[in-house]
Design a protein that fits this description.
The complex is a heterodimer of chains A (656) and B (344). Chain A has 656 residues and is mainly alpha-helical. Chain A has helices at 2-35, 37-40, 50-63, 72-96, 108-123, 125-140, 144-174, 176-191, 194-205, 209-233, 237-245, 250-261, 263-283, 292-301, 305-331, 343-346, 348-366, 382-421, 424-456, 460-490, 492-507, 514-521, 525-549, 553-561, 566-600, 608-615, 621-653; strands at 66-67, 70-71. Chain A has a domain at 400-409 and 457-656: Orthogonal Bundle (MetI-like fold), CATH 1.10.3720. In chain B, strands 6-7-8-3-9-10 form a 6-stranded mixed β-sheet, sandwiched between helices. Chain B has a 4-stranded antiparallel β-sheet with strand order 2-1-4-5. Chain B starts with a strand and ends in a 5-residue tail after the last helix. The chains are: A mainly alpha (656), B alpha/beta (344).
Amino acid sequence: MSDITLHNNSSLAQKYSVVLQFAAVIAFGVLLANLWQGASRWPAEWVIPLKLWLTEFFNWLGKEAGIGDYKFRDLTRAIAWFLKQPLTWTEYLLYRGVRSWGMPPLPWVAIVVGIGIVGHWIGGWRLALFSAACFLYLAIFGLWKDSMRTLSIVLVSVPVAAIIGLFLGIWVTRSKRAASIITPMFDLMQATPHMAYLVPIVVLFGFGQVPAMMATVIFAMPPMARCTILGLQTVPSDIIESGAMSGCTPRQLLWKVEIPSAHQTLMLGVNQVIMQTLAMVVIASLVGASGLGQKLLFSLQQLRLGAAVEQGLAIVLIAVVLDRLSQALAHRQPQHMEVKQTWARRHRHILAFITVLVVSYALAKYSSAWAILPKKMTITLGRDMDYALRWFSKEAYPYISPVRDFITVEMLIPLRNFFLWLPWPVVLGTVMLAGWRLGGASVAGLTGYLVAMIIITGFWVPAMLTVYLVFSSVIICVLIGVPIGIWSARNDRVARFVMGACDTLQTFPSFIYLIPVIMLFKVGDLSNILAILAYASVPAVRYTYLGLIRVPPVINEAALTNGCTPRQKLWKVELPVALPEIMLGINQTIMMALAMTAITALIGSRDLGQEIYRALPTADTGRGLLAGLSIAAIGIIADRLISAWAKKRKEALGVE
Amino acid sequence: MTTDIQIKCRNVWKVFGPTPKAFMQRHNNNPSAQNLSDEGYIGAVQDVSFDVHAGEILIIMGLSGSGKSTIIRCITRLNDPTSGEIELEGEDLLAASPEELVELRRHKMGMVFQNFGLLPHRSVLSNVAFPLEVQGMSVKDREKRAREMIDLVGLGGREEYFPRELSGGQQQRVGIARSLAVEPDVWFLDEPFSALDPLIRAEMQDEFLRLQKMLKKTIVFITHDFEEATRLADRIGIMKDGRMVQMGTPEELILHPADDYVAAFAQNAPRDRIVSAKAIMEPAGDGQKSQPENSVPANAKIGTIAAQIIGADTAVPVVDDEGIIVGQISRQIMSDALFGTDAP
């Protein structure tokens, strides 16, 4: 009896102590800020000029560094030259042609039908028609050349990124030391927004297609490496042992047994590489990559939204086609042929393509419209759409703008001011305390270190603005996403629709989301938040759904036999059990929101994303890199805290 | 017996933990259970010694976690044992370099796996030809050999199928064909039929016996099924908690179990099919011959002679191959042997 009361008392005291600890930290911070100006604003003279040092270092590296006569610059030029060759050839093939040889580019008809043939070969008639129709859109809407420019970068970057990723992945699975270096590097790389990569690349490689391609490769490679690691680690031990017992040397074991057995996961990696490449190709237009991305950027900047919609749609269609094709390839299962087929039948796809090629070249000789559609034969609805949109926003704006102003003035600005007011000791203290309570000294140390780095390198204000934007958007994401996830888990038909929509939304390059938002709400914090919302809600929905349907059926049945109403079952049983999974979804949402803040800089903001964006034209490497790393730091802090919590919770619940 | 020894295991240990080798040295290569648990080590295989004779089927039986899978992986060196000696045809297997090991596996060993271990991206033909392919044999030769093996296991006509298009039993036939493609001296089977449903399992056991009759390989066979073991084995070794509890013919295990653990398995064994007349007969006769119709052969399993003995009024003489009486079995002895002495 006395034991029980004692226990109760101690747990009560424990509960109390958490609140007390946080209260003490906050009170101390606020008090300090009142006594000492430096606690609310880190004194400017204490800022470590890491920014400047980095910028100088990269300038030195790009211009002067070298051993003797060999400059580092020569090395970067050699790399650039090397990468340029396949790109040039692909461009010749797709849209330029080689005039001196009298070689015309592939006629558009051949490419459209060709992608259809590839679709048929991989996935049958439906995929064939879908792919061909999407590419037909590119031709008819007069976006052919730009699309082919973009496609060239994709076609060259994807194999390069995939091969580098594959070898890095293999290396990590073979060497513990490689794993301990590369894995955390990938974490950091994936948390750093795309744009931050561009600044050092501009300094080292200049502007143009090749630097854009390099940035693309660097960004698209880690997912391939991750999939390689995962794929190789999940090859069933029976298969590996049977390979070893068949007398494979280690090399044969890798290339003949492990890699082919992991084929499916590897292809999913390639799929991710393609998606990342397309997302990056658009952003890379900021460093001078021509193509659809550049056109879209110009249209957005000139507020020609009709054109932006057409160009955005083109990017989306290319992304969706490549996604479907690579997914179908990943899921293709080997199947035996019932009867021996003739040579022609077995090679029917390649034969069909050669026929189309010959015919289309012949037609192109006869009329150039078959080579590339002349302008007068293309259509654009851009101007009409502009009129319509202008009319719409003129009509709708009187209704939308009060809503926007109300939300901005009454909710967003006070929230923003609160975040800006927060003294840094309060933030540092609460983050470290949370880290300590959830994950012990190591988590507290890491998160504290990251916060401190943001403070002393002088990025506090833009960082807090980023936190404010992400915080507001994530709250709304959760308020919208979690209920949709719950609804999907309740209803199969809804689930099928919602999950399909989630898949499609995830294939859109993040850029695209700026178009509708800017159409309706013009520039401002609310537009930023809505763009983030559109991009980052998917994981909140998906993880909620997955978390709920993975609740063990036994638990549900027990709840029902205990007499729960459906509502009680949801709130008292399912949600608590699914909560760790849902929190991981929110974690993902935060990551995506952070990535998106860098993109929304394009339509105006004052946060870290803007710091990166501004660093680009002035080649201010230090500013761009550190701002990017600060975004990564915020992401890592959120990730460590939430993962530590979810792990603790999952252990307590005894799931997984 | 005058058979030669093909595989020799002496004091084999496989210990898992932070620094297993140092741990074994610290304890003179013979740690006690107390040592293991005190220092947080796990002895998957503990001090196991046995021989495998040429041409015999040795079955190692145990429940999951008994170390049976680990010992077979020590012999094939898929896992390296922590200490002990293992010889294959008189050669020290543990001293083999990685290159020598590849050679050994290419020519001397074949192995069949519980979950088949087939390469999903290759056809049946290509799977069976795989061990020959990695040796560098020409396409023509290896496909010819692979087709022979596929016919041998009764899968002719399915050469172009992919593993996922086959049933479990068919997949394991592919696994068997592949393991035999290199004509190994020693054939390892790691729970080959455990993933199959009972009817297919019985069929595959028959198939296995048919193959062994033709091929006469030296076989190490792992199972957790005592009935399967008694059906197929020349000798059975029973493992428990990493130790070899007893090794002997099925008959010896049933009639003279070393401890309660073995006895518990033996209790449910089909005695009528395992125990032979000479194992239960009482001494009788002094060298004279008997009429074949009035006697039973010494090697006959008691299930096949039970009716004759129980139907006879007096004890039935047991004769050897020459027809000379070597003992006799009464109705009482037979019933004890069939149902156990404590049966009502």
